[in-house]
Structure formats: structure tokens, C-alpha cells
Amino acid sequence: MVVHQWVRKNKLDLFGILEPKVLASNLETIHRNMDNQEWEYSSNIQAVNPCRILVGWNPNKLLVDNVRMGDFNATLRPEDRYGGDRRWLGHHEEFRSSINHAGLLQPSYTGVRLTWHNGQQGESIILRKLDWVFVNPHLLDKWQHAHTHFATRDHSDHSAMTFTLAGEDRKRGGHFKFLNLWVDRDNFMDIIRNNWNQNLQGSPMMRLSANLYRVKKVFKKWHSQNTSQISKRVEEAKRNWDEAQIQLDRNPSSMDKRDDERRCAGIYNRLSKDEEAFFKQKSRIQWLELGDRNTAFFHKSLATLSTTKPVC
Question: Sorted alphabetically, which InterPro entries does this protein's record hold (predicted)?
């Protein structure tokens, strides 16, 4: 009954129960009590009785097969452990090594971090991060808002996990596109080097996919902070430069006014070049080499290209 209420409350299409300790003779009763007649169930009852794993799913909904979630009974890092034996021995690295070898990533999460409690108190308390959700880079590329929530404990010594593929604010059809203007940044190669994990394990294709995902994530964040809505940024920079010129004209002897005018001029010129590069790429025009800042021309060109898709 508790599981049934939890499934209905969170509107789940897939659930898993770890350590249910249900006897084979009681499994059919459990299925009937779930009140989901169309659902299908699977367990490891053939290997161990009572079963230790019970999974239920709605076959009428699309399910992805590249999510790994559950009680792995292992920690990734020393900080995932509190209380008990705090030593970090060689065999503790095996879990992290296997995850890296499989090319799996952790989606963002909310809720509690240490998901298991030994039920003791005082000096005897032991907390561990034993419950995990891992996905492959392809899933995060398709479902960029996928996230996990680890609830506070209720009837179990483990936290319940809820994995959601997309939030309500998910934008549809917004594919990532590389902007050529990023290459001109002084720190471009540093960004690539810092986010290209050459020690990642797994197949060559899996390593490539994971590294591309990391780099893409950094550039998308940088774009949102620096080059998104580029025309509005140019307009704002021009207003700031105009104001700085007026202030300098009123007080030309002020060193602060001189520096501010030069700073605003530099920002405007850089953003103007970014705007030109942005519309040059977006309009698919590659022949302009003289550097004219004719953005009105680009806008008119874009209007004639009905098939042009958003750059990002």
C-alpha cells in the first residue's frame, strides 16, 4: 500500500524496490494490491527467495534503457561516508573505475546526499551515499533538464529516488550549435583542455561522447552569460559608451572618466564583432572579409532564408 501511494503521488511509470524481502508465494498478492492492472513486474525471485529486487513499469509509456539507478552499496568518494570505518582503501576505487569505464554520468540532483542511515545514534551513527542514478551522455543530450530527487527517509533506511526526464520549462527543438566566434576567445583552448578528460575509461566512442558533452555544457553556459541575445547586448553597450563619452566630455581631465570611456568602447567593439560573426554564421554567408559592420544587411539576408534554423 505504501508503494502504491508513492507511485500514484509521484505519477511514476517505473519504480524499483530494493530489499523488499517478499516471498515467492506473496508476489502475486503484491501485484494485485498495486492496482495497476496493465503494469508488468520483474524480480530476482528465481535467484533468491525472498526476492531482493522488485521492478514495476507501465508498458504503455516510452521507457529509456540507459538509466542505471538503485542501491549500489558503494561510494564514489571519501566524502560520501560519515561514521564507521573512514579509511579509503584500494578496493573502494573499483566502483568509480567501473562507472568511468561504462562512460556513465550523474544528472543533477536535489534532496539529501547521504542516502543511507544505519538507524543508530550518537557515536554509532553511520551515513553513506549508497543510492545513485547514472545515465549515459546521449540521454543528457536529449533530456537536458533530467534530474534526480533523493527524498528524506520514510519506511526504509534508504532514501527513495525519483528520476525525472524533463521539467516543465524544457525547451523543445533547441539543438546545440557551435558558434565560430568562440574560437577567437583567448581562453578557448583552455576551456577545451580543462574539460576534456583524457583519463576517462570506456570505449573510444563513449569517451568521445562524454567529453563532447562536458565541453558543450561549458559553452552553453558561457553563451548564456556572454553572447546570448547579442543584439540587445550591443545596444546596451552602445548606450553605456554614449554615456561614458558624455561624461568624459564634461570632465576631460578626469582619469576615471577617460578609463571608463575606453573600457566601454572596448566592450562595444568586441560585442559588435561578435554580433557580426553571429549573423554571418546564421545567415550562411561566408564571403564578407572586409569587416564591415553591416548588421542591417544580415537581417535582410536572414529574412529571405525561410529555412534558417536558430543557431542556439
Answer: Endo/exonu/phosph_ase_sf (IPR036691)
